């Protein structure tokens, strides 16, 4: 079986909610209000699915370990973004207005 969860995130305008990191879940991000600029990067561990979330990546680690984004997009209300377990990601509100998004997650302990 899989665990399923839902989290609602409210981010003030011109702010970043979390530093770049990866999670041990599949994520479906539904933008509800405002806009958010998302960057998604390939996994850093070749062929290994993480069993936990990563520590935050520093700016230097983003350059040396992670590399270039494979998705670089702004989500607007109604947009949906999916990224798999282990993919590094970060998001920042793209204006002075707050952003609200819902993350639906699914994960397995394997």
The major β-sheet equals: 4 strands, antiparallel
Percentage of residues assigned to helices: under 10%
Computed structural class: mainly beta
SSE order, one letter for each helix or strand? EEEHEEEE
- Model regions low in confidence, pLDDT < 50 over at least 5 residues: none
Beta-strand residue percentage: 35-45%
CA(first)-CA(last) distance: 11 Å
CA gyration radius, whole angstroms? 14 Å
**Oligomeric form:** single chain
Give an account of the 3D structure.
By secondary structure, the protein is mainly beta. Helix content is 7%, strand content 43%. It has one helix and seven strands, in the order E-E-E-H-E-E-E-E. It has one helix spanning 59-66, and strands spanning 3-11, 26-33, 36-41, 71-75, 80-83, 88-93, 99-107. The strands form two sheets. It has a four-stranded antiparallel beta sheet with strand order 1-7-2-5, with no helix packed on it. It has a three-stranded antiparallel beta sheet with strand order 4-3-6, with no helix packed on it. The radius of gyration is 14 Å and the shape is globular. The model has no long low-confidence stretch (mean pLDDT 91).
Structural topology:
Elements: E1 3-11, E2 26-33, E3 36-41, H1 59-66, E4 71-75, E5 80-83, E6 88-93, E7 99-107
Antiparallel strand pairs: 1-7, 2-5, 2-7, 3-4, 3-6
What's the quick description here?
With about 110 residues, the protein is mainly beta. It has one helix and seven strands, in the order βββαββββ.
């Amino acid at each position: 079986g899989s665990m399923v969860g839902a989290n609602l995130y409210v981010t003030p305008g011109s702010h970043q909610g979390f530093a770049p990191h990866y999670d041990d879940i599949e994520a479906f991000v539904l933008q509800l209000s405002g806009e958010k600029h998302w960057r998604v990067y390939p996994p850093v561990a070749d062929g290994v699915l993480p069993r936990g979330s990563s520590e935050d990546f520093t700016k230097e680690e983003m350059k040396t370990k992670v590399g270039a984004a494979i998705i670089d997009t702004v989500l607007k209300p109604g947009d949906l973004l999916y990224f798999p377990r282990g993919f590094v990601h970060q998001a920042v509100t793209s204006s002075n207005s707050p952003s609200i998004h819902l993350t639906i997650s699914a994960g397995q302990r394997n």
